[in-house]
Amino acid sequence: MDDDDETPDDLSLDATPFSLDFHGSRNALAVGLVTGEVCVHDLAAAEVRRFPAGSGSCRVVAWHHDTVLTGYESGAVVAWDVARGARVSHKKLDGAASACLASETAYCVGDDLGNVYVWDARAGDMLRAKPHEDFVSGIAAHDGLILACAADGRLSVLEPRRNLDRVSTSDPQDDELLSIQVIKGGRKVVCGTQTGALVIWSWGRWGDSSDRALGHPESVDAMLKVDEDILCTGSSDGLLRVVRVQPGLHLLGVLGDHDGFPIERLASNHDLSLVASLSHDTVVRFWDARELNTLGADDHATDMAPAAPHHQQRANVDTDDLPDDDDSDWDTDDDTDMDNPTRHVPPQQRQKQKQQQQQQRRRLKTKTEQFFDGLA
Q1: Where is the composition biased (Acidic residues) (predicted)?
Q2: β partners of residue 191
């Protein structure tokens, strides 16, 4: 398939996939399998490169330029040069790899014992911290800090330039945290949970959460960032939803349906035109996501520029200072008429914007969404 062609056919694999990630500038998809094998699918050339099985299943994969970082059940973490088919680095964790993030210059991996590891992608010793008592389920980075969420119900914040000294650990949330994204221009951190709520922290206030956005009937195991307000969420009920976060949770549409099977992982390509998802079967499913590139502008009636896909939001881990915690724009605890982008828009223009919003939502609708209209 060419990059500009229609959505590719789903990939049928030889074994169950555990992890996947798109290349940062082309339609190449890395997939880690339960057998430990790693497959890199070039969707444009319809070619597959295979890398030998590690010890145990391949739990996590992440692209770093033209290198694929892979983490295994055994605790091994291997970086593969895709062009040469050669192993370029090898590290060993205390537990099985459970989450990973590749920045411009560094790798960050979490394991199922609650450890977080960071090391320079070019060379250098591995830093380690243990902020959690259960498996690390998601890792994000923003403004020089690493944020990890875990099944112990806590969010942790660590600073690589200070040898992963813990900046803060949140209060326990009485719920497993399963996925994480930084939104609202860095003002908010949102985590998906086992019960389906999205738990939200205000930046710099790492104790108790500041808000909970309700609406998902089951667990939110994976999230993709569309822009600073909109997420794609993968749930254990099999639906790939498009939601706007704060105020509250607003369902904009359903992008895909796994027929009731849980969505375990999500990945978007370099221009957010294609989303890939995986479940408990041996298929990677592809979804046409081109509508998402204009959704934010239509839905908010602003000139908001779409954010880069999640794998292009490479973490800058070289900053010491936290941003000013001016939280008044997004804190839903006290706001009444907060952040209404149409408050000062003339009625005629507001009506036109409303029609655009309705057209956009109709384009996203599927039959499965009808049941969930009450959540919008």
Answers
A1: 318-338
A2: 180, 199
